[in-house]
Amino acid sequence: MKELFNISTTSTSEPGQQVLSIRIGERHCCFAITDLSGKRLYQLAYYSGDEMEESSLMNLFATHPELNNSFYKVLVSYDHPQSVLVPLQHYKYEDAQLLLQAMYGVNGRSTIVSESVSEWQMYNMYAVPQGVHDRVNRKYPAGRYWHNYTLGIKNIKDAAVSGRLWIDFRTEDFTLIAAKENKLLLAQTFLYSTPDDVIYYLLKLCQQFSLSQQEVKLVLSGLIEKESALYKELHQYFLNVEFRDAD
Question: Could you tell me where the beta strands, DSSP code E, fall in 82-131?
Answer without folding.
Answer: 83-87, 110-117, 122-129
